[in-house]
Every structure is written in structure tokens, then in C-alpha cells.
Predict the 3D structure of the following.
Amino acid sequence: MQCHYCEQYKQGLPFRCNFCGNYFCSDHRLPENHACPRVGGPKQPGYSEVPSLQERYAKNHGHVGNLPRIGGRSSFRLRYPGIFSRAERKHFLIAMGLMTAVGLSMMIFVPLRIPIDGLYLAIGVVGFLISFFGHEMAHKLFAQRNGLWAEFRTNTYGLILTGLSILPIPFKFLAPGQVNIVGEGSRELQGAISLIGPGFNIVFGTICFFSGVIFGSTDVGYALLFVGAFNGYMALFNLIPFMGFDGLKAFEWDRTRWAIALIGSIALVAAGWFLLGFLP
């Protein structure tokens, strides 16, 4: 049987949750171990239409329309059986490895005024890992903080296009996957969730950029400048307002905030490339 939560095929009898109606393995059979959406947990794909605590509360108290949250921000509602499911850990590792390879290819194939050494590449690896992981975790944690189900998944086309970006081509595709979010969220919430990922890259990239300026014309300084520019490019790429990128929902939510983030990402890329000597 395949567990609805961890998506693993395991031997043994399937366990059906009496609240959401889905089937789980022995590790996730309890409601609190699969963040059951029908006992206050974040909604997950495929949940059955069994009256939830909120719905029963609304019916008993005559509420119509928006359902109230019982007891404010419930600690149980926001509790997960670990930060990541097994399937999510696998998808994260694949995507992080691929994104790091793309970043390293950019560092190796571009001309520099200093010789490339191990420290330069090591700082780049750490910086790329933080850039991608922080971007996706910003989406994930902010969505979960607001009671939505959120897990990262790679996709075939994204993996292929990101893999091709390892080659020395001018345009880099930096989207091996995305955080899938399910649940009832307002337009404002969806826009904020979308914008917080590029926002992380702009903030982290700015920190790296000014740290690189402080270190000056050294391997550490150049590596930090490169990581800063990489974050700017990553934010700029994700702010594209179409094709399901983060920029689409952010643009639909608040064009002013989207424009500010776009200008910030462009400035970060331009400043980083200028100091690295890529721009005249």
C-alpha cells in the first residue's frame, strides 16, 4: 500500500483514518502524525468531505460564511510530524544538488580577475545551498504558519531545463521544482507567500553583496559578490509574472510590492556583475 502522507509503498495492512478517510502506513496512521485536516491540521490534497471541527462548530453556533478558528492559533493545528516528509526530503536533495551544480558552472565558466581556488568554490557551494533552500523554506514555513498544507516537489520539465542550465549558455533556468500549497487562502495570503521567496533572496543576496565589498579583491570577496548576484538573478527569475512563477500571484496581489522586489533584484544583479567586472 502507498501512504498518503509519505508516499512510500510499505508492506502490511493499510490504516484508514476515521477523520479524513485516507490510508496511511503504521508510522503515520495517527491524525497528529499526518497533520490530519479534519481534526484541525493543515488541509492536504485528497481529503474527504467529513465535517471538520470548524464546520461542526459553525453549524452548532449558527455561523454562516467564514468559519471561525477554534481557540485562536491552535498548537495542534500547526504541529507536523517532522519538518519534512520522506518524499519531500528526497525531492529537496535532488533539487539542491542540481541548483548547486548550476551555480558552480556559472562560477567556473565566467572570467575573473583572480584564479579560481577551493575556497572560492566552497563559499559558492554553501551560498547556493542557502539561496535555494532558504527561498523554498520561506514559501513553505510561511504557508504552514497560516494553516496551509505545503510541501516541496520537483517536476520533470523543471529538472530538465535546470539541468541544461549547467551548460555554458547565457540564460539560466532556476526552477527544478516548487512548493505545492493546498488550502483555503485569500488572494493577499497567496500573494504574500509567493513574494516571500524572492524576498529572502534579495535580503540574503544583499548581505552577501556588502560582505563581498568589505572583503574586497580577494577570493572570499569575489565569491560573496557572486553569491549576491546569483541571489539577485534567482529573485529576478522567480518574479516573472506569468507561467506559474512566484511573480504571477505577487503581481496580481500588489503590483507596487512586486515592482519594488523586481527593482531590488535587478539592482542586485547589476551591482554584483559590475563589481565582478562583467559589465563595462
Remarks:
- The longest strand covers residues 149-154.
- The beta strands are 15-16, 23-24, 149-154, 177-182.
